[in-house]
Amino acid sequence: MYVAVKGGERAILNSYRLLDDYRRGDTAVPELALAQIREQMPLAVSRVMAEGSLHDEDLAALAIKQAAGDLIEAVFLLRAYRTTLPRFGYTLPVDTGTMQLQRRISSTFKDVPGGQVLGPTYDYTQRLLDFSLAAERSAGHADRLPPAAEPLASHMPRVTDLLEREALIEPDRPAEGDPAPVDLTREPLSFPADRATRLQNLARADEGFLLSMGYSTQRGYGNSHPFAAEIRYGSAEVELFVEELGFAVTIGEIELTECQMVSHFAGDADAGPRFTRGYGLVFGYGERKAMSMALADRAMRAEELGESAGSPANDIEFMLYHSDNVEASGFVQHLKLPHYVDFQTNLELLRRMRAERDEKDHLQRRPRAGGDPASFTAPEQDAGSPLSRGRRNTEQQETQA
After folding, report:
1. Which whole-number Å values give the CA distances from 382 to 213, 371, 377, in the listed order?
2. CB of 160 within 8 A of CB of 229?
3. What 3-state DSSP class applies to 400?
4. How many Å from the N-terminal Cα to the C-terminal Cα in the chain?
5. 3-state class of 259 per DSSP?
6. What is the pTM of this model?
7. How many CA atoms lie within 13 A of 13 on its CB side?
8. Is-cis flag, bond preceding 192, omega within 30?
9. Domain boundaries in the chain?
């Protein structure tokens, strides 16, 4: 046993070295710097920050490099590091209405106050490979746009505010008493889960899972036909209330993507027909994730709104328990670990069941007492069936031989 343990330890240490060689690749190629990952792979950095629950571009870039580009592994690394960090307190709610916008669009109104701001997006590209990116380009090669003649307004009204003025959408108000939300980074998920808890879970949920579930609601496995009232991406100030000072101070800025989906609602006894909301907010530039989150949020409100809730996306426990890629990855990949004892137990059980089955078959084929030596009982087969006749002829031929 000692030799096996030492041998296994040596193999594991060697696997570390092999992994490092695999991650580095050809040493003739310059090694990736963290600044290159941070600046030239911003969407990957944004996803790792969002699902890792930690807004730090440098640490996200380091996790991506260490994970050799495996974003789920990078999310795991970032979350593990986050647990070692001290907590200084909770910030005030971020006001996304005062974001320094880089992108802001609405699919519900063509002309909105402040205008449509396309910003950086793949929406209008043709999805053709750009082989010019394969060539080495100088640092100043990029054809950058000059600054706009007039900066964007510091406060862009939300499209949903326009609907709320006419009472065409449900009000967006804190719950009665404005209770402090559960902190899922410190407390385990429990049910029933209120909307604030669900949104926390979705904010760091796997983008692929949310995308699939959001897509399912559009394929008939849900009861909503949403519109993207507004999607905005930019920087927002983060403020912390300092008790010793008696007022809040700005401690930094973070990049956020926010999505507000609106869906038609027929109304109930307390409220007439109106639009309802689905909300998504993620770290960095993650438009697809924010939209998927908003779709999932609205789908999980079906029972609350008195709608049919028979689809997977309506099942709150199913959604929240299976949306986390760190937990999902760990549970699936644990199957790679040694299961020798469990397997041997199943193997022994299978062998015993096969032996019992073979013995039963042998008893059924044994000649009847005082009867034809070649005859046998076959209770599971019709005596006149072609299969029974063929089997009987074969047995008779073997007996004669």
Report:
1. 50, 19, 11
2. yes
3. helix
4. 55
5. strand
6. 0.82
7. 6
8. yes
9. 2-82, 96-121+151-173+182-335, 346-400
User: pLDDT digit string (tens) for 240-297?
Assistant: 999 888 899 999 999 999 999 998 776 666 777 888 899 999 999 999 999 999 999 9
Decide: 50 and 43 in contact? Cβ < 8 Å.
Answer: no
Q: Kindly report the length of the chain.
A: 401
pLDDT tens, position by position, 357-379: 988 888 888 766 555 555 545 44
* C-alpha angle 135-140-144 in degrees, rounded to nearest 5: 100
User: How many angstroms separate the CA atoms of 164 and 177, rounded?
Assistant: 22
Beta bridge partners of residue 235, listed in sequence order: 100, 255
Measure the CA angle with vertex 257, ends 253 and 259; round to 5°.
140
Residue 4 in tokens: 């096996």
Instruction: Tell me the helix, strand and coil percentages in the chain, rounded to 5.
Output: 45, 15, 45
| Rg value, the chain, Cα | 31
In sequence order, the 6+-apart residues with CB closer than 8 A to the CB of 23 are: 65, 66, 68
Nearest-CA neighbor of 232 among 300, 168, 166, 294?
294
Beta bridge partners of 249: 240
* Calpha distance 102→121 (Å, rounded): 10
Q: Which long-range contacts (CB under 8 A, 24 or more apart) does 111-114 make?
A: 112/159, 112/162, 112/230, 113/156, 113/157, 113/162, 114/152, 114/153, 114/156, 114/157
Following DSSP, what letter does each residue of 42-72 receive, concatenated? Answer: HHHHHHHHHHHT---HHHHHHHHHHTTT-HH
